[in-house]
Amino acid sequence: MEVMKNHALKMNSLGRREFLLRSGVGLGGVALTWMLHHEQAGAASIPNQASPLDPKLSHLPARAKSVIFLMMEGGPSQMDTFDPKPDLEKVDGQLFERKNVQTAQVSGKRYFTRSPFTFKKYGECGMDVSELFQQTAAHVDDIAFLRSGYCDSDNHPAAVFQYNTGFPIQGNPSIGSWVVYGLGSGNENLPSYVVLRDGKPFGGTTCWSNGFLPAVYQGVQFRSGEEPVLNLEPHSGASRSQQQVTLKLLQNLNRRHLKDHVGFTDLEARIASYELAFRMQSEIPEALGLHRESKSSQAMYGIDEETTQPFGTRCLIARRLVERGVRFVQVWSGGWDSHDNILVGHRNAAARVDRPIAGLLQDLKQRGLLDETLVVWGGEFGRTADTTEAANKKKAPGRDHNPKATLMWFAGGGSRGGTVLGATDEFGDRAIQQRYHLRDVHATMLHLLGLDQTRLTFYHGGRMKRLTDNGGEIIDGLLA
Amino acid sequence: MKRVFLSLVFLFPAVTCAQWSVFDPISQEIPPPVENDEWSAPIDAFVYARLHTAGLTPAPAVGRRVWIRRVTYDLVGLPPAPDEVQAFVNDARPDPEAMGEVIDRLLESPRYGERWGRHWLDVVRYADTDGFAIDAERLWLWRYRDYVIRSFNEGLRFDQFIREQIAGDEIDAGDRGRLAISYYRVGPWEADNMMSKHRRQDYLNDITSNIGSAFLGLTIGCARCHDHKFDPIPQTDFYQLQAFFTPISRCETSIAFLPGEMTAEINQRRDHTVSRRLNKINALRLTIRKKIAESKGISADEIIDEDLDLAIKEKQAPVTEEDAKQLNELMTAKEHLEPEQRFEARLVSIGNEGEEPPLETFVLKNGDPHDPGAKVVPGFLSSLPVWSEDLAKQAVAAEAEPGNRRKLLAEWLTSPNNPIPLRVLANRVWHYHFGAGLVSTPNDLGKNGSGPSHPKLLDYLVRRLLAHRWHLKPFHRELLLSRTYRSATAHPQAKMCNEKDPDNRLLWRANLRRLESETIRDSILAVSGQLRLETGGPGFFETLPAGMKTSYSFFKWNQSSEEQRRRRSVFMFQRRNLIHPMMETFDGADLNHSCERRKASVTAPQALALFNGQFATENSLHLARRVLDQKSDDAQRVGQLFWLTLSRPATVAERNSCVSFLAEKRQAYAAAEDEEDELLALRDLSMVLINTNEFLYID
Question: What value of ipTM does the predicted structure carry?
Answer without folding.
Answer: 0.88
